[in-house]
Amino acid sequence: MKRGVFIYSVLLFLMIILSGCGEEQEEINEEKDEVLTVYTTLFVWEDIATQIGGEHVQVKNIVPPGSDAHSFEPTAQMMIDIAEADAFIYTGQGMEGFADAVEKAVSNENTKMIQVTEGMQLNESDAHGHEDHEGHHHDVDPHVWLDPVLMVEAVETISAAFSDLLPEHQHTFLENKNRIVADIEELHEQFTEVVNEAERKTIVVSHRAYGYWEERYGIEQLALTGLDPAYEPSQKEIEEMIARIKNEKIPYILVESNISAKVADVIQSETGVERLPIHNLETVTEEEQKKGYMELMEENIAHVQQALE
């Protein structure tokens, strides 16, 4: 009898231990499951969201490297995946032509729509290329990621959204946000110093995407195409541009890898200017994607500094 009681006691003890381990394992699994699934439209938002979220956020960018968010069309499966996700981060202001369709697709779901430009003070678009080749209108300039000050606002918006969705990790999101903001503010200081110390204030660019630099730092962009790069200048505009480059002895033209170089080729052959690369970060190559937002912006500042010499 005593032996039976002993065996029963041992079995009961083992059952309690195993039960406790099971509950503990279940708690661990639940903690592992606390990961947000987030879809983005631009490389910039993917990079920032990944840095803010860390291990608590899985970020997927739906626009592949080399593709244009203006003309990109998500597949039916992508729309389903976004509707099943926790959040969708996009620029807004007509930057992504498919954003309205996504909003309709997730209207009855729990997907949080995070428009990074919401509440921002944005520049109005210029007259050139105001309407793009597909009829989309840009009443404001959507290239906010090129302005470090506005990028700070975007980082704060994304961080706040993640904290709302996963409040138990808001401290981590806040720490990551503060680190990113400090880096971006340093970019702003570098840019300000570069322009203040430069004698020249005009840069020639292949795409009128740098209006926020004009507003923030006092740079004038002499652009070969409009806000929509599909816009091409007239022969008269090209001649006026050539004359100004020669008169002001502008030595460089800043050219983006994803914009047609046809007009730039004409300008270069007529003026003898040298080319420097610049990243609009709207569309990136796989190599540029690996560098990340901060490194590409540092390269931009370095090339602008050279162009202003």
Automatic annotation (TrEMBL):
Transmembrane segments: none
Pfam families registered for this protein in UniProt: ZnuA
PROSITE patterns associated with the record: PROKAR_LIPOPROTEIN
Protein's recorded name: Metal ABC transporter substrate-binding protein
Family, per entry: Belongs to the bacterial solute-binding protein 9 family.
Domain of life (superkingdom): Bacteria
Coiled-coil annotated spans: none
InterPro entries referenced in this protein's UniProt entry, alphabetically: AdhesinB, Bact_metal-bind_prot9, Lipoprotein_PsaA-like, ZnuA-like
Lineage, uppermost ranks: Bacteria, Bacillati, Bacillota, Bacilli, Bacillales
Annotated keywords: Signal, Transport
Organism field: Aliibacillus thermotolerans
